[in-house]
Amino acid sequence: MAKFSISLPDDLLNYIDQKVDNRSALIESLLKEWQEKQQNEALPAACAVVDELQLGWEREMTTQIIIENFSELDPWTQSLIGVISLESENTEASYIDYLEKKYI
Q1: How far apart are alpha carbons 97 and 89 in whole angstroms?
Q2: Using an 8 Å Cβ cutoff, are 82 and 63 in contact?
C-alpha cells in the first residue's frame, strides 16, 4: 500500500483523538469508504461505455454460459445449442400479441 501524508488542523486532530483510539485506522477506513463510493459511482458509467461500443460479445457470452450450464446434457442435445435463435424484438410485446390472437 502506498504511504501518503494528510495535513489536518490541530483542533480537528484533537477532536478525533478524543473520539477514537487509532486516528490512522479511522482515516484509512474513511479513505477506503470514499474509494468504494467512487468505484460504485463510476461503475454504471463504465458499463454504459462498454455497452455503447457494441462489441458483439453478448451472443458469444450467452453461448458460453449455456454450454457451461448444460455440460451434463447428452451430446446430441448439446449439438442443438445455438441452433435456435430468438428474434431481437420485444418479447413482452410478442407475448401480448400471441395472447390477443389466441383469445380475441
Answers
A1: 12
A2: yes
Residue 81: CB partners within 8 Å, gap ≥ 6?
63, 66, 67, 70
Give the Cβ contact number of residue 102 at 10 Å: 7
Mean pLDDT of 80-98: 68
**Do 35 and 54 meet the contact criterion of CB atoms below 8 Å apart?**
no
| Whole-number CA gyration radius for the chain | 27
Distance CA 35, CA 39 (A): 6
- Roughly how many angstroms between the first and final C-alpha of the chain, as a whole number? 68
Q: Report pTM.
A: 0.38
- Residue 2: what pLDDT? 67
Could you write out the DSSP letters of every residue in 35-79?
A: HHHHHHHHHHHHHHHHHHH--SHHHHHHHHHHHHHTTTS-HHHHH
